[in-house]
């Protein structure tokens, strides 16, 4: 899907997809990255919450959430997790984390840009997580214009 804003300029997809970076260097501290999402989830009353994580990278937060949401014990009928990741950024660790999450709920990756979140989600989100993401939008996704657009769009999809 084409970005409605300026495309990411200068985003080093090749370097950011290197296994050593995505799967190892940038893929730790899942508890730190997923803790607030897990806490927010505990305040959701929907029978089938929809979580969204923008920029999951190697999936550390996804793995953390899976470990916290024991199958059949989280109290929801189902939990859906949508991951929004830049096209062509691929991680083996994320694939594994998605498989883990699929044991406690459903998880899919949507390829696109945070700035276009208004057109990327199939249904409203209950929780949106974006750890270490905004500086990327600023640097490669339109500077303050991209940030302001994202901030204005978030309430429309929540
Ligand atoms: C610095 S990493 C942070 C990864 C992880 N969330 C964390 O806290 O460690 C930024 C992540 O956001 C993705 N990303 C960068 N710009 C993006 C954009 N405009 N829209 C969606 N994802 C983006 C990158 O590919 C990467 O997965």
The overall number of domains is 1
CATH superfamily: Vaccinia Virus protein VP39
Mean pLDDT: 88
Q: What's the Cα radius of gyration?
A: 15 Å
Please trace the helix and strand order, writing H or E for each element.
HHHEHEHEHEHH
Number of strands: 4
Low-pLDDT segments = 1-5
Helical run tally: 8
Structural class of the helix and strand makeup? Answer: alpha/beta
What's the CATH first level? Answer: Alpha Beta
Helix content: 40-55%
How far is the first residue's CA from the last residue's CA? 21 Å
Q: How many strands, what sense, and barrel or not for the largest sheet? A: 4 strands, parallel
Bound molecules: S-adenosylmethionine
Share of β-strand residues: 5-15%
The outline comes out as globular
Task: Describe the model.
This is Class I SAM-dependent methyltransferase. It contains 8 helices and 4 strands; from the N terminus they run αααβαβαβαβαα. It is α/β, with parallel strands linked by helices. It has a single domain (13-157), classed as Vaccinia Virus protein VP39 (Rossmann fold). The chain has a 4-stranded parallel β-sheet, with helices on one face. α5 (92-101) links the parallel β2 and β3 (106-111). α3 crosses α4 and α4 (60-68) packs parallel to α5. The structure holds S-adenosylmethionine (SAM). The site of S-adenosylmethionine has 21 residues, from β2 and α7. S-adenosylmethionine is lined by residues 8, 16, 26, 33, 54-57, 84-86, 89, 113-114, 131-133, 136-137, 140-141.
């Amino acid at each position: 899907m084409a970005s409605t804003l300026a495309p990411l300029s200068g985003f080093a997809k090749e370097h950011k997809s290197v296994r050593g970076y995505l799967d190892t260097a940038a893929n730790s501290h899942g508890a730190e990255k997923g803790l607030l999402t897990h806490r927010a989830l505990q305040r959701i009353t929907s029978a089938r919450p929809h979580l969204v994580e923008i920029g999951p990278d190697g999936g550390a937060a996804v793995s953390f959430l899976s470990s916290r949401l024991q199958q059949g014990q989280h109290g929801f009928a189902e939990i859906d997790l949508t991951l929004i990741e830049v096209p062509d950024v691929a991680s083996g660790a994320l694939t594994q984390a998605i498989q883990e999450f699929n044991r406690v709920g459903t998880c899919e990756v949507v390829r696109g840009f945070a700035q276009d979140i208004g057109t990327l989600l199939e249904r409203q989100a209950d929780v949106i997580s974006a750890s270490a993401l905004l500086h990327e939008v600023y640097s490669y996704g339109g500077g303050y214009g991209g940030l302001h657009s994202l901030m204005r769009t978030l309430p429309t999809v929540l």
